[in-house]
Amino acid sequence: MYPTPMERFEDFTRHRPEGKLELIDGRLIVGNSLVGSRLLLRQILHGWKVDAAIALAPLDTWIQALAVGYDLTLPETGAVDEKLNSLEAQVCSVNFNPEDLQSACAEVTWSHHRLQQNLSMSLFRLAEEVGGQSFGRDFVMRLSNNGFTPDLLFFKGEGLNQLYGSFLSGPAELVVEVQIQGHEEVDRVTKRDYYQTAGVPEYWLIDPQTQRCEFYRLVEEQYQLQPIEDDGYYRPSSVPGLAFQADALWQEEEINPWASSLFIVEQRLEGFERLPAEEGPRWGSLLFIPNIQAEAVPISFEEYISWAPRAKFEFIQGKPLIGSTPGTRNVLAMLLMTFGLAGAVKLLPPYAWIQGLKQRLEGERQDAERKAEWWAIAREAAERLRTHFSIRRLGVIGDLAMAQPLNYWSDITLVYWEKLEDSWRAYDVLRDLDPDMRRIDLLQVDQNWLTADQLWQIERHLVEL
């Protein structure tokens, strides 16, 4: 039903999409394509199992989606058990053929990493001298309801855009994409059109394989390809005083970005001061309540910026990890919104989904016993923390403190108010209660760092111990 851990590892290392999470037309786009989004969704389902996805939407919605996705017939009436048994009987005749999603893979070579890093660090070093700021990957540029993460962007914040803590709202003065083989159409057509429509003044495409740079300048609302000047430099019109030497990218000796000749400042801007960033939405600023339905549901920019983690793709303990465990959960939820459950169920055999739904149903029926066990662990953990660290005030938040049943993503979240010195030692004290440290989480109450979910739970559902 699932690939072996080694098969999952080989699939992840050989075929994973580029580590890039963007929001385009209300959909979470991974590695520049919907195929990449679908590939990552399947890899998460293989590693974390269908139970991880099933926990994120109501049982009835999943059952309806399974029937739609595999063209099955649901009984008009009956309990959940009866509906699942009916679907189980029908899927015996379903011939499941896995989708070929390897086309989403694009090898990110050392030359790509090297160029991206050198460009970012070189321009970052000189940004203030020409009156602006520079950011590399993982920083979002908001264009309407879309969120792009170019390889490099430069901005001034002088009317064209506004800097927020987690993103730039509006077009940057300069956007650079370092191309990956197989993604040329996305950069040359799809993103080029979005950037042109949004008014990005300068858009550069750099191809490590062909050692070619293309400089597009917005002229009368249309991009026009610009030549390099006779002295070998290109001077972007949107960043006066800055000159770029393209040939320096292809030199064989290693570039020192702190003394690089890629960019030079021909006219320094005196007295430049960085404008402070506005607060705006950020990671965790919205409650995590994804609207997951049988059909696709658009994701808003505020949801994307609040839920999307850093696009760091790793493979740990047999499963992909996107930034963190909460980050992986959030990416999974946004991918389910992107494809809808009826589209998501086609990635795994229908029998896997039926077994997962039955396990969730059985878990909910045993919820009282499971919560009693977890409460005993929480109280013992609180007692140990008081003994070893003299913590006075402790409480529990999360699903354990609420009326809803525990689910795949539930944990025992212990909150404390006093400063905990050497907090890593606390986990050692609790390790025999939770050997894998998967269920117990410790959270200091600090208003500056808590997410909207954590604040809401503390305010409304805290149970003091």
From TrEMBL:
<dbReference type="InterPro" id="IPR008538">
    <property type="entry name" value="Uma2"/>
</dbReference>
<dbReference type="InterPro" id="IPR012296">
    <property type="entry name" value="Nuclease_put_TT1808"/>
</dbReference>
<feature type="domain" description="Putative restriction endonuclease">
    <location>
        <begin position="108"/>
        <end position="243"/>
    </location>
</feature>
<dbReference type="InterPro" id="IPR011335">
    <property type="entry name" value="Restrct_endonuc-II-like"/>
</dbReference>
<protein>
    <recommendedName>
        <fullName>Putative restriction endonuclease domain-containing protein</fullName>
    </recommendedName>
</protein>
<dbReference type="Pfam" id="PF05685">
    <property type="entry name" value="Uma2"/>
</dbReference>
